[in-house]
Sequence to fold (547 residues):
Amino acid sequence: MQTPWGDLGTLDLDDHEQCRTILASDKHQLAEGLVVESVFDQIFDDVPDHLDGAILLDADTAIVNPGGGGEWLAFVWARAQQPGLGRYLRALEKRFRVWLVETDTPLTTFTAREWKNGKLISGSRPLTILMGELSGRQPQPVEVSQSVRDANRQQQSFWGFLSSQHGPELGRKVILPRLFMNWGVQPWFRAVWNLDRILVHGDDVWLLEIKHKYPMQGPPVSFGLNTGELNVITRLGEAGVRCVHAIVVKPVWSKDAGSMYLLNDMRLRARAALIAVDMNAEVTGSMMAGSRGTSAGHTTFSGSGNLSFRVLKAGAFSRLGLLSDPPAALAENIALLVLGTSLPPVEDRWLTGLAGKTPSSDQLWEAEVPAPASVVADASVPPAAAKFTSAAETPEAKMTTSGHATGHTMAWSVSDRHFQFGAGRGHSSLVLPEGEVIELSNVEWAAVADAIRVLVKKGAKKQSPIRPVSQKEKAPATGERWTEAQETRLLRLWNEENATIGELMKTLDRNEGGIVSRLVKLGAVETRDDVRVESRRREQQVNDKEE
Fold:
């Protein structure tokens, strides 16, 4: 198997400098996430002690959505033949086409055999050849943006923890799984997810997901989850693989805060909450039907573009404890969650209190400030953008702000419609009355603010009313809300009938931007670029058939 550093068989994975170079090609958040996972594994390793007969599988799973309505794929790299592996594979095959992945000896490549009806049904084949056949395309490696590859944070995570923690096992435990995902699977597909913690307990199979993040401050305090990942969890649930979604909540609510405090700052560690939720059908269903938003580029695999996400209130999570608690106590609480035992729910004030007490934060404050000046619109402003025509017609608004050293929140209401803006160091988010969340970098928000200032200044000079727009002038369906029926029809045309963007525009009477954005928000694809790439591929297929 080829990698940017040479053939897999030529890589010296005992050389930690070689390992560091490989890991440096990923986002610094991945290296920091590996630190969190290593710390959390010390807790999770104790979970079977509290569950009679439970087994932790030594396996990594790559889940692939090939797009175009194709059958989802699961590639399970089992590093050991263990009891419970067959139960896991049998569960997966209910909703995925499954392959068992292995490595050869000496290590030169990954191979795969297909699993179906409870047994292996094919011979062993090189993984890269199989990927080409399944995808029908040449490999297209994804380059990770330099903007999300902070060398200092990568070095801190690698030399400050990963190298010494894993020692001679670093290459096998940490680097080889990254090579499997990044160069064995990802180049052929764009929608790929990794599952790396599988627990088998009796007839039950559980995925344990761990994240290290901070919430949207609220109120209410909420967490976002990538729509694509939510689709994976939903599909796994349909296959009988249940999911515990756990979060280590950062005591400093900023994306600029790394993970090394887990090792070198006992005060911050004592304020890092561990929370979790059983992602059952009720939870996933409510998330898919609830608030949604679009996150900034730093959350994507490559560090560019954006991702759609869904929102889950902090109150839906159970309180497992703090990372300063004894590992055995935290492991016992995870086991209780698996067994269906009710645990204390997370309260907003508990999380905000932990964040407000961090050494890097000021005391939380609240203040009443005047409402922003009214916007006076003129005839040149598009109707969808202009809310009011004069100051006299502007409903009374009241704004409340709160914050700490890492950011602040502003909330305001207009005619009983509630808005909230959360400002962070690098990125900020606007929560609309309907629950939709818009997240942009602060540079992008500054450009929006500049545009609004121009609009206000221009409107103040002219003071002219908005010109009514006739039905003939109104662009068809542009800017109008999508109904549930329209969204269902869009997904059917895209996923089942392989429609192109042009065909969708004609059929649904929508512009290209609206269709592309809606497909991303509905989780049909990960990024806008993916929609356009897939549409071009479909157009080419049609052209090839006609020729």
Remarks:
- The two ends are 35 Å apart (CA to CA).
- The CA atoms of residues 278 and 337 lie 7 Å apart.
- Residues 297-304, 357-398, 400-407, 463-478 have pLDDT under 50 and may be disordered.
- DSSP finds 17 helices and 24 strands in the chain.
